[in-house]
Amino acid sequence: MTSPVTLRRASLALLLPVLLQGCGTQAPRGDTDRKGQPMLAAAPLHVTASIKELMDSTIDPAADGLWDSVGTIVTTAGIDTHQPRTDEEWHAVRRHALTLIEAMNLVVMDGRHAAPRGTKAGLGELSPQQMDAKIAANRAEFNLFAQAVHDEGLKALAAIDRKDPEALSSIGSDLDERCEACHVTFWYPNSARPTA
Ligand code: HEC
């Protein structure tokens, strides 16, 4: 009788050539770009999360990390202004900025759906299919909204590297507007907006 271990080895041995063959299509093909530099085939990317899940797991917590890092709280004991002070505290905020910046590349990845199928659209919100269709029809605009958040993240990163809490604080409110710009266009275009 074959032990489970041997079985697993055997099936791996069978699988390996198949896997390697798959990789073969991704390997450099010796092509060169216009400047004569060798071109590497694009790395294989695997899309798992929807944009909604990326927002919840990565983007929103990173943005919160930036927003919460500086501020003023008025209490009965007086005014408490908080900001990163030690190198470790600045480093922690820097992680959030980098996460936000790089996560915007994930948001614009081809093949990523807006939300899991079956997600119920709230009042004024588009359904997952409607969001996908709207993004597909307005790809350039969608990418620009993501780019705007990316760029705001870069400004935050520069402020962090200068250890400038005032700049970080004002970037925070611009960042909020950039997030909303995409949401009102692609997520809840039909929601009632406060009239000025
Ligand atoms: C390029 C477009 C785009 C940008 C920029 C963007 N979002 Fe989103 N966001 C979406 C889409 C699409 C959804 C999915 C809508 C849904 O929940 O069905 C979403 C959903 C969300 C959700 C709801 C997640 C959930 O679990 O329901 C939060 C929170 C969120 N975004 C926060 C942010 C924050 C914070 C920023 C800015 C730092 C931001 N978003 C920038 C497109 C964007």
From TrEMBL:
It comes from the Bacteria. This is Cytochrome C. The lineage of its organism: Bacteria, Pseudomonadati, Pseudomonadota, Alphaproteobacteria, Sphingomonadales.
